[in-house]
Amino acid sequence: MIDNCIRIAENENVIFTTFGDAMRVPGSSKSLLDVKAEGCDIRMVYSPLDALTLAKKNPEKRVVFFGLGFKLRCLQLHCQ
Q: Which of 19, 31, 26, 27 has the alpha carbon at shortest distance from 70?
């Protein structure tokens, strides 16, 4: 899963967003934090709404939000 995220984040026209706890999860050879240190545009967000704000401010980029866990289910329930 993390290796797929890294491949997406390495695209030049992508702003990759995720919660802070996902930044250090290791892939097969590196983490999202490692890829960020290499220069990829990876940003820690506190809410999926932060990713939406980034997307509105950067219409020329593809903003990807990677989320996992119960927080997303809570957001889904809140939005229904």
A: 19
Tens of pLDDT along the chain (80 residues) come to 899 999 999 999 999 999 998 999 999 999 999 999 999 999 999 988 999 999 999 999 999 999 876 555 554 444 54
* Per-residue H/E/C for the chain: CHHHHHHHHCCCCEEEEECHHHHCCECCCCEHHHHHHCCCCEEECCCHHHHHHHHHHCCCCEEEEECCCHHHHHHHHHHC
> Could you tell me the residue ranges of all domains in the chain?
2-79
Closest CA to 50 of 16, 80, 23, 6: 16
Which CATH architecture group holds 2-79?
3-Layer(aba) Sandwich (3.40)
Report field, pTM of the whole predicted structure over 0.85:
no
